[in-house]
Design a protein that fits this description.
The complex is a heterodimer of chains A (78) and B (245). Chain A has 78 residues and is an alpha+beta fold. In chain A, 29% of the residues lie in helices and 18% in strands. Chain A has three helices and four strands; from the N terminus they run αββαββα. The longest helix of chain A is centred in the middle third of the chain and has 10 residues. In chain A, 38% of the residues are buried. In chain B, the strands form two sheets. In chain B, strands 1, 2, 3, 4, 5, 6 and 7 form a seven-stranded antiparallel β-sheet that branches. In chain B, strands 8, 9, 10, 11, 12 and 13 form a six-stranded mixed β-sheet that branches. In chain B, helix 1 runs antiparallel to helix 2, helix 3 packs across helix 5 and helix 4 packs across helix 5. The chains are: A alpha+beta (78), B alpha+beta (245). The interface between A and B is medium-sized, with 19 and 26 residues.
């Protein structure tokens, strides 16, 4: 993911890149995933958005109580 | 023939074969080797909390099996496959319940309910399994998967939790819709009912337009296709509507 997009869409909190929009924000999750170069779809059984290319469907998203974190960004140390 | 519930958890890692696929393979394996019958696999969402070391989603996969195999045989074959297919960094666990045994179903369901909202320890899982005479074993890593495996049994027993693994493919695609009546859908899929998202059942002759990815849920102890009514037409519910299951 490019650094500018990462900064816009995710917030670094305690070494976790948290999706700023939170849960249920499908439009934003799709928009970010469309521009993300690291998107990889998770197992179909773990997908929750009807639009396949969505942060909520990515194998690098980790569900949290109030949002998702991006494990790809964490690994890239942005 | 005896009836069993089998549940596994924490078998995967990012980019590896999913727990649902492994559960489905174990179900098929046990079915084929014994002439038994396995149910659909259901996916049960557990608590996502910083203190729980799940990889990305924290869900358990459960299925029912009717089989002449002994518990020792079921455990042997299931564990062999679990070990062979789990990711190297996974923490797999498996739980096997003899549905014909005397066990405290209420306690098991309560454990499942708690695992959706609380952090639970391995010790608590093993304590309950021993008390209820449920076979609960871990097979690598931290073995944390035993918690979800036991919880998955409880949630499946509750009867209204979880999505059915996999998609229902009857010839519909993203851009090609297929219209069938409820009776045809049930006949072709093996599902038990078609219900509205408000949870009332459709009659056998009502027609449903299927399009894109079609998935079922476990509701009222039945495998159910959920549908929405849009523009006077019943359509399969989207993934967003199924996320609560």
């Amino acid at each position: 993911m490019d650094p500018i997009l990462a900064e816009q869409a995710f917030e670094l909190v305690d070494n976790r890149w948290i999706f700023r929009a939170g849960l249920g924000q499908y439009w934003m999750a799709r928009r970010v995933a469309q521009r993300c170069t690291g998107f990889v779809p998770d197992d179909e059984d773990e997908q929750v958005d009807d639009e396949p290319r969505s942060c909520y469907n990515c194998q690098y998203r980790r569900w949290l109580v109030e949002s998702v974190e991006c494990l790809l960004l964490k690994n890239q140390h942005y | 023939m005896k009836n069993w519930l089998i549940c596994i958890d924490d078998t995967d890692d990012i980019g590896t074969k999913g727990t649902g696929e492994i559960a489905e393979e174990i179900a098929l394996l046990l079915e084929n080797m014994s002439g038994g019958k396995a149910s659909f696999v259901t996916r049960h969402q557990l608590f996502v909390h910083p203190d729980i070391p799940y990889t990305s989603h924290n869900s358990a996969m459960c299925f029912a099996l009717r089989s002449p195999l002994t518990q020792a045989e079921i455990h042997h074959y299931a564990v062999a496959h679990l070990i062979a297919e789990s990711a190297p960094r996974a923490d797999p666990g498996i739980a096997i319940l003899d549905l014909g045994s005397q066990y405290d179903a209420t306690a098991l369901m309560e454990f499942g309910r708690r695992a959706k909202t609380e952090v639970i320890t391995k010790l608590a899982a093993y304590d309950l399994a021993e008390r209820l005479n449920i076979q609960l074993t871990e097979h690598g890593g931290t073995g944390q998967g035993v918690i979800g495996a036991l919880a998955g049994l409880g949630l499946r027993l509750m009867g209204s939790d979880g999505r059915v693994k996999g998609q229902i493919k009857l010839g519909q695609f993203e851009d090609v819709a297929l219209e069938l009546c409820v009776a045809e859908i049930l006949e072709l899929t093996g599902l038990d009912a078609v219900m509205s998202t408000e949870r009332y059942p459709l009659a056998a002759d009502e027609r449903v337009l299927l399009k894109g990815k079609v998935k079922a849920v476990y509701l009222g102890h039945k495998f159910v296709l959920l549908v929405d009514r849009k523009a006077q037409t019943w359509r399969n519910a989207g993934k967003q509507a199924l996320q609560a299951y």
